[in-house]
Amino acid sequence: MKKKWMASTALACSCMLLISGCSGNKADDFDAVAYTTAYLDGMIRGNVDTLSSLSGVSSDDLTATFNSMIDDLVSSSIGGDGSSPGSTQISPQLRQDYTDFWKQAFSNTKYDVKKADKKENTYQITVDTQQMQLYTAMEPIYDEKLADYLKDNSVDSDQYIEDVYSLMLESYQTALDKAEYNDPESVTVTLQKDDSEQWSISSDDMTTLKNALIDLASLNPSADGTTRTPAQVTAEDIANSQSEGAPNMEYPKDLESTPAYKVGDAITIQSDGKDVATFTIDKVEVTDDRSEYDTSNPDKVIVITYTYKNLAFDDPLLYDQMSFRVLDGDTVCLPYYLADLTSPDLATTGGDAVTATAAYGISASCNEVTIYVDGAQIAFPFQVSASVS
Question: Which long-range contacts link 57-66 to residues 24+ away (Cβ below 8 Å)?
């Protein structure tokens, strides 16, 4: 998945103004490694005392800037507060719980400022980072919780939005306890003085660094070219099974009338009588691989490899996991999350074909599955039968 960081203009400006950099010291006396360590401790972990001592900026001001960063993250992941455009109507307490969670998550990040190489009037700072696989751990937990919830609850309920975001927070909290860290990788950021002779790290460098520290919820391109996180989908999206976090568990009512194909068939997808795309289930394989993050423990796991190409559809096409319902007899199977799955990408008109993989848990006795495919953008459902013996 393509990963991005949503940083506000206000936060970028505050980061530029924070570091006064012991301006009375001689250049040879300035310890750029210690200064950068204090800066990261303050702006990432919220430990501002050392930074305040070195910079001369008050602890209250530094804490306010750190809190602003956390507020931006909460807004980007679950939407703004009730008074802002695109806001999410959740309780103030739940929003505060999200704020507390992200503070805890960033306090658990792992980094080590290794060295500073002076180049003219700047320092090239080398930071060893270990990325926390937070979202990777959270996603299967959330999917399972949400699927269980949707079996007994309606998306039309007044409590629905609050419940869904509560489930997501519970999933994040569980994931934080079990999240693993990648091997160390080096990231280079620049410490430099601005026009006011203040030391600063650019917002772009901070974005790069934060992405290297936490595997945050990815912003996935949607059909209209905008971006959204799984947490930002609406109740209507989930009801239509077009969100990133809610697999459609309803048995297809039109299964008997949908065209049937086999694995390897090149299926031509039409819209308004025009051939606009092709789709192929390339192969379906049983795998022995299992994920420590997915606690569903299915008897058997299959991996579906599929390819689609946009021939003439105006918008970029995306066939993600929400386009599938895998049927084991009368049972709609839950997705299963493996670390090495290939995420789907947007297929632009006349562009390259896209190949992706998806995994599902099935019963031990299952020898054949029916893969029901119905993309969100084109009303052209079909089914593919596949042997999984």
Answer: 57/18, 57/20, 62/18, 65/11, 65/14, 65/15, 65/18, 66/42
CA-nearest of 384, 361, 387, 374 to 250 is: 374
Nearest by Cα to 49 from 62, 36, 31? 62
Write down the pTM of the prediction: 0.56
Comparing CA positions, the residue from 55, 38, 33 lying closest to residue 118 is 33
Checking DSSP bridges between strand 335-336 and strand 274-287, what pairing results, if any? Answer: unpaired
Look up residue 199 and give its two tokens. Answer: 């030391």
Distance linking the first and last C-alpha atoms of the chain? 31
DSSP-based three-state secondary structure for 147: helix
* Amino acid identity for residue 75 in this structure: S
Average pLDDT over residues 16-25: 42
DSSP H or E stretch at residue 278? strand 274-287
Detail the DSSP E strand segments found in the chain. Answer: 110-119, 122-130, 185-193, 199-201, 220-221, 227-228, 260-262, 267-271, 274-287, 300-310, 324-328, 331-332, 335-336, 354-362, 368-373, 382-387
Tell me which residue of 132, 125, 164, 130 sits closest to 148, measured CA to CA.
Answer: 164
pLDDT of residue 368: 96
Is the predicted pLDDT of residue 233 greater than 80, yes or no? Answer: no
